[in-house]
Amino acid sequence: MAFPIPVRAYIARWQKKGLIDDETAEALLSDLKSQGSGFGLGNTLAVLGAVLLGVAIVTLIAANWEAMPRLLRVALIFVVIWAGYLGGAWRQSLGDKAFSQALYIIAAIAFGAGIALIGQMYHLSGDAASAALVWTAGVMVAAALLRSGALAAASMAIAIFYLFSFLNDGFSPDGRQYLWIAPLLAVIGAGLAWYTRSRAAAHLAALFLIAYFLVAYFDIDRPVVLWLAAFVGLALFLADGLRPDLSGRIGSFGPTLAAYGLAAGLLALSVIQFEDIMRETGGRVTFGIVILGLSIGALALSGRGNPSVRWIAYVAFSLEVLYLAFVTIGTLIGTSGFFLTAGILVLLLAAFVARMERRLHEKNPKAGASA
Amino acid sequence: MKDKAIWLFAMATLVALFQSSILYASIERRASVLRDGRDVVLLTRPVDPRDLMRGDYVTLGYAISSIKRSDITGTPDDKTGNADIYVTVKAGSDGNWQFSRASFQPIEDVAAEEVMLKGRTRYSVPTQSDALVSVDYGIERYYVPEGKGGAIDDAQRQQNVQAVVAVSASGEAQIKALKENGKPLYEEPLY
Fold first, then answer.
1. Cβ(B63)–Cβ(B46) under 8 Å?
2. Domains in chain B: how many in total?
3. Average pLDDT, stretch B44-61?
4. Domain DUF2157, which positions (chain A) (predicted)?
């Protein structure tokens, strides 16, 4: 479901116009309900509000450093954790989807703040990375036990924070243990996303993996990391494109996974291309052709049924064309000539995208029916 | 429906208990070192502060924070880049404790007047015998109220801040107090 909110409005309109009978409308709506997590604007706002409130509580405790005795600060953290989880369970038992998740999130933030504040108050040394790892693990356990999609998403967001804490500490303070910890976290995150039926968690798990490949590449600085990322990404994409029956088994996650795979593959290839240029080995045109070919191939294979793939392919194709034009003819012509060429190219690309969109949309109903 | 609610509350309690005990464990672990450990007094040396995730703190360096490679016995186990290291200190005539010996393996024959600290090398261990090995003991940071760090830094620069450190039997160290010229600056309660 790419746009769950308007679809309901459409169904209501069709029902009103008499295009579909009440029974069909009911069936369609209940199908929608079973598919999506129902994480609408209201729920999103509730969770965002919870994040803000959680941060407010934490900064309030942290700022009143000297006004409060240490034990009181610790007690407050504990109170927020307990109140958050128990209060969340109470709201959830009443069927309240938004505020139960919001309270869980507040508790999870309080737990992370507790790790940082206790480390600070009791002068425990230790790096930010291992603190973030304990936080991630604690929230993952909470997500699994409470079967909470919001907590699953939060745990993956914290996992991304864990990866980026390396950038601050300088690389590999823990002897590069993250190289095996991070894939483990991604697998657990994907499992939690499936178990809690949280699309947000699945998105974050995919982003986490892409961030992992980038951090690993900049850390160990070997092209094999990029090739691996390109291979894994494209394999995911092809698995969905060539065997939709297989990817259909994981529900609506398949196409999304394919889109992330394509994005990761193209991203890895463009970093390879960039490295190639830095070393001036002259492969830029070869990589250019590969990236352009992949974008076109991706459009042909999955562009019809998968809007995310379509847009990733458009972006990759356009950037690559502009880039190739810049490095091959950009140096031969003057500034105004460059803008002229760039202008014409962008217009041509726009025409190309518009044409593709029309073509793909014409066939869309058929593909939608068979998918 | 009622069973489901009870189940949910049980899970929520479990989660809250789990996360609070992680936090409590780290507090209690430190308290037990302060309570049961032996005290040593180490003279600090200035280093440079600040950290993203936490507030203001002073970074404390000690004479035993860098040890000559040739003074360390045993073979380092540093497959992950850092090696465990065991260092003993002895009380000096001026009340500050001094380096006595170091090994990459736990020291079995610690004398009565010695105290053993367990540390970790900051980088992989160099092979040249005259190289200096940087060691962390977990007592390199002391958090202070915002804006107060500068005063300790200045005093450290004049070489007269001492740290009273409690050391457990296994060598784990925690800062118990900071002193300037023997006058207490900060003293740590157990909890």
1. no
2. 1
3. 64
4. 13-151
